Amino acid sequence: MRSIYLLLWKDVVVELRAKELVYATIFFAVVVLLIFCFAFLGGPKPTVDVAAGVLWVAIALAGTVGISRAFEREREGDTMRALLLSPVPRSALYISKLVAISLLMVIVEAVSLLLVSLLFGVTVTHFGTLVALLLLGTAGFAAVAALFGASLGRARSRDVLLPLLVYPIVVPVLIAGTRGTVALLTAADPAVAAFWLKFLLVFDAVFVSLGVWVFEPLVAGDA
After folding, report:
1. DSSP per position, 2-47
2. How far apart are CA 191 and CA 158, in angstroms?
3. Which of 37, 98, 149, 168 sits CB 3.0–4.6 Å from 71 for a disulfide?
4. Pairwise CA distance, residues 151 & 162, whole Å
């Protein structure tokens, strides 16, 4: 736990000094939301299903941009290789990256949720359950992204390979997040939202455990 804390604190301090990832991902999410908003301008009011889909698309795209840049920054100073050579458990390195990515995406989600409610005229209900849904979806997305982001190492086409590897696996997260958000925003049967919450919880448990297990052999070549 101490290793996880120190590695996470390193990422937080670096980002507080540079602030490039937060600004870049928030700006990208805002641009995506504005494009969708103007696409529906002048037509019928978008449904809640559309608003929920736009929210999760913005989160996924902005998260990918932030994750790609986060690992690129680690490689620029050969920081990743230094961390792999240090006497730090590989699982601690993976979990710290997972948490750092999740924190970045949570900031993007807060801005995105506010903009969706304003631009699409959506009233956010069941706020606590919606936050839990977003956090579980974020954890599942980050678990997969952190694993592949670190394992791609020095691959020349890593910026192209990262979304190609991540998105097919996180499609269930995006579907669950979207359908769960629709169920909450439309005040539908609470059992529907509860089902998607349980689904995301199982997904997170499986892929976080899998990431901890396979992270070390995947990054062994980079050391």
Report:
1. HHHHHHHHHHHHHHHHH-HHHHHHHHHHHHHHHHHHHHTTTSSPPP
2. 40
3. 149
4. 10
Please calculate the CA angle 164-170-175 and round it to the nearest 5 degrees. Answer: 125
Taking residues 49-67, what's their average pLDDT?
A: 83
List C-alpha distances in Å: 70 to 9, 103, 128.
14, 12, 29
The model's confidence at residue 223, banded by pLDDT at 50, 70 and 90, is: low
In three-state secondary structure terms, 90 is helix
Q: How far apart are CA 111 and CA 223, in angstroms?
A: 37
- pTM summary value: 0.85
Say how far apart CA 47 and CA 62 lie, in whole Å.
23
Integer Cα distance of 27 and 22 in angstroms: 8
CB of 171 within 8 A of CB of 90?
no
What SS3 class is residue 94? helix
- Domain ranges for the chain, please list them: 2-222
What is the token pair recorded at 176? Answer: 């669950």
Residue 153 CA to residue 184 CA, distance in Å, equals: 40
